[in-house]
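Give me the fold.
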Amino acid sequence: MEEKVTVLAKRKTTAFLFDYLMDQKVIFTISPRPMINDEFEIDVQIGNIKQAIALGMFLKENKYEVFGLGEFNKVKTVTNGNGSNKKSDSKEDLTSKIAEESAPLLNF
């Protein structure tokens, strides 16, 4: 399983990324981005799942931009607007029920 991932890095952060990739013995190639002098594309070859997980954690922690994941791009969570309204309505219902139940106790 050889997967290739492209990491976008600025000149300031390339040394930190290089140190990590060399320490982990990961195969990578680098090329400057066209039309942008300060950014580089680093193609990283991932050989196994442990290497992929470790690299992913490192890149996320240090806020690098990653391309080339294909179908595994960022997963978007969809929240249903009606579900949140129902939850708030049920909270209001509970408080109104408690108020109704305690109201007769206050009347003498």
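The chain has two domains: 3-71, 79-108.
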